[in-house]
Amino acid sequence: MNCKISKNAAKMLKVELDKPENEGKKLRVYVTHAHGDHAHYGMGIDEPTEKDVVVSTDKDIDVILEDGNEFLDGVRIDYFYVPEEGFAITNPTKGNHGDH
Known about the structure:
100 residues, mainly beta, three-stranded mixed β-sheet
């Protein structure tokens, strides 16, 4: 499985992951709901279970993904400052570019 994190997103995520209460935990990306040929995503700080796979990224952030969930393979995490500040999770490999 594969996950990409943009430079801006990595900067914001490291701030959260470096907090003392998150020590030993990792970023989890999950499907909030799927319909048709695409899904919508969420994320949080969590610990992996036996149903998960931990994927290393080129930004030195390990990401927990549900093993075998095809909508999670190839997700991309971005952080935008405009028009509205916040994270965006898409999966370009599944044709999901965030516009719905």
